[in-house]
UniProtKB/TrEMBL annotation:
Source organism: Rothia koreensis
Annotated GO MF terms: tRNA (guanine(37)-N1)-methyltransferase activity
Protein name: tRNA (guanine-N(1)-)-methyltransferase
Gene this chain is encoded by: trmD
Binding site for S-adenosyl-L-methionine: G131, L155, G156, D157, Y158, V159, L160
Similarity comment text for this entry: Belongs to the RNA methyltransferase TrmD family.
């Protein structure tokens, strides 16, 4: 069964880039299903209003609950399980939660990482709720928790105008991990964050460009030496740019050469260089 992604937004045209490049090809070839629905289709007034003033005062507007509830119900109806409710397992049985995952982009959510993308790639059905204004009425998330596994997710410690940009990033990061989407699956193994380190620098022809030469080791033809050099560059780059990732590493997983390179990178410190 191919993964299914539903996106609810008041700006469905915002998601059109997902029709392009590898994700667009994957959709056309049937590797995944992605449906974008206009939240305003579930309003009842002639102005198609989706927001109202916040209780308790304050700046901005809040997205009304009823259009969201009806939109989410329509997703479940299309899925064929509008009445799905998470039931506790019988005694001795392991819980299997078959409810779809409802992802709500929010600066108040857990930060999206490569590990999150890998987890999402195992999901059969994800619904993305693109909020706007000051956010969605909190009661929607409480209500949805009976029918979905609700997960607020943030791209990082900053605020966007809406959830659409975040959803595009999450869908692309997730869908590219699905079998068949990337032409050469081995390329996924050596990417940044795949093993807790940033990716090594890459080069192409010509060997000398504007007086800048490709590192000699890459021209040696010795694949073992090249692999070791790339590993060194990963460690050095991560130590300079993302010391937080280095701190999160389990150094017991590093061999003697790794630790030597890491110690040297740490001793050099951050000289403010940007590669």
């Amino acid at each position: 069964m191919r993964p299914r992604y539903d996106v609810l937004s008041i700006f469905p045209e915002y998601l059109q880039p997902l029709e392009l490049s590898l994700i667009g090809k994957a959709r056309k070839s049937g590797l995944l299903s992605l449906t974008v629905t206009d939240l305003r289709d579930f309003t009842t007034d002639r102005h198609r209003t989706v927001d109202d003033t916040p209780y308790g005062g304050g700046a901005g507007m809040v997205m009304k609950p009823e259009p969201w509830a009806q939109a989410l119900e329509s997703v479940l109806e299309a899925r064929g399980d509008a009445d799905v409710v998470d039931e506790p397992p019988a005694e001795g049985e392991e819980r299997h939660d078959s409810r779809p995952l409802l992802v709500v982009p929010s600066p108040a959510g857990n930060v999206f990482t490569q590990r999150t993308a890998e987890a999402f790639a195992q999901e059969r059905h994800i619904v993305f709720a693109c909020g706007r204004y000051e956010g969605i009425d909190e009661r929607v998330l409480d209500w949805a928790g009976e029918r979905f596994r609700v997960m607020p997710v943030s791209l990082g410690d900053y605020v966007l105008n809406g959830g659409e940009v975040a959803v595009m990033a999450m869908v692309e990061a997730t869908a590219r991990l699905l079998p068949g989407v990337i032409g050469n699956p081995e390329s996924l193994v050596e990417e940044s964050h795949s093993d807790g380190l940033l990716e090594y620098p890459v080069y192409t022809k010509p060997a000398v460009w504007r007086d800048r030469a490709v590192p000699d080791v890459l021209l040696s033809g010795n694949h073992a030496v090249i692999a070791r050099a790339r590993r060194d560059w990963q460690i050095e780059r991560t130590a300079r740019r993302r010391p937080d990732l280095i701190e999160a590493l389990d150094e017991s997983d590093l061999n003697a050469r790794d630790r030597s390179v890491l110690d040297a990178a740490r001793s050099e410190g951050d000289e403010g260089n940007i590669e």
